[in-house]
Amino acid sequence: MNPRRSLWLLIFVSVVFCSGGQSLAQTQPKPGTQAPVITHSYAIEKGRFGRVINVYIEAEDPDADMFRIAVVVEQVGQGVYPPDWIYLKSQYRGHFAGYLQWNTSSSRAGHMSEWTQITIKVSVFDRAGNESNVVVHPFMFVSEVFPSPPLPAPFNVASLPRLGTISVELFDPAQDARGEPPEPR
C-alpha cells in the first residue's frame, strides 16, 4: 500500500475512533421528510454528585413524527457511555417543551471525584430515523452547593412535563469496581 494513502487511512480511522464512532457529517433528512429541530435547551453547569440534574429541551417537527430522544454522556477520564434512549409519548410527536430528569447517583460509583467533567449531548429522532441538531451541555461535579438559578424562557412556566428519565450509570475511574480507591503501587 502507498505510504501516503496509509497515512490518510490512519488519520481517518483515528478521527472516527476518537469521535466514539459517531458520524463526522450531519446526516441529511430522508427524501420526503424533515428532521426535528431542538429550538431551546438548558441545563445547569455545576452540581453535586448524587443530585438530580434536569435537562430542559423544546423541540418541534414539521412531520409530527418525533419518536425518541437520544442522550449521550461523555466523561473525561472514562470516555463515552452508550446512548440512552427515551421514547416520546404520542402527544409530543409534533412539539414538546419539558425536561429529562437524571439522578446522578450511581451503583457503579460511591462518589465522583471533585471537578469531574462530563458532557451531556441530546438529540431527537423521528420515525424515519432523521436526527435533529445536537445540543451540548457541559457539566462539572463539585462539592460546593449552588442555589438553583431561575429557569430561562420558555422553561420558566409552572408545569413542564417530565419527558423521561436518563438512565446513565456513571463510573469514577479513580475507584475500582467496588467503589474504593485503587491500591497504591
Shape: globular
Structural class: mainly beta
Fill in the CATH topology: Immunoglobulin-like
Number of helices: 1
Number of domains: 1
Name of the CATH architecture = Sandwich
**Secondary-structure element series:** HEEEEEEEEEE
Strand portion, in percent?
A: 25-35%
Runs in which pLDDT lies below 50 for 5 or more consecutive residues are 4-26, 181-185
Could you estimate the helical fraction of the residues in percent?
under 10%
Separation, N- and C-terminal Cα atoms: 44 Å
Number of strands: 10
The H-level CATH homologous superfamily, spelled out, is Immunoglobulins
Tag the structure with descriptive keywords.
globular; 34% strand; 185 residues
Describe the structure.
This protein is mainly beta. The chain has one domain: Immunoglobulin-like (Sandwich), CATH 2.60.40. It contains 1 helix and 10 strands, in the order αββββββββββ. The strands form 2 sheets. Strands 2, 4, 5, 6, 8 and 9 form a 6-stranded mixed β-sheet that branches. A 4-stranded mixed β-sheet has the order 1-3-7-10, with no helix packed on it. β8 and β9 form a beta hairpin. Residues 4-26 and 181-185 have low confidence and may be disordered.
Topology (SSEs and partners):
Blueprint: H1 3-18, E1 37-42, E2 46-47, E3 52-60, E4 66-75, E5 79-80, E6 84-87, E7 95-103, E8 117-126, E9 135-141, E10 162-165
Parallel strand pairs: 2-9, 7-10
Antiparallel strand pairs: 1-3, 3-7, 4-5, 4-6, 4-8, 8-9
Quick summary:
This protein has 1 helix and 10 strands. It is 9% helix and 34% strand.
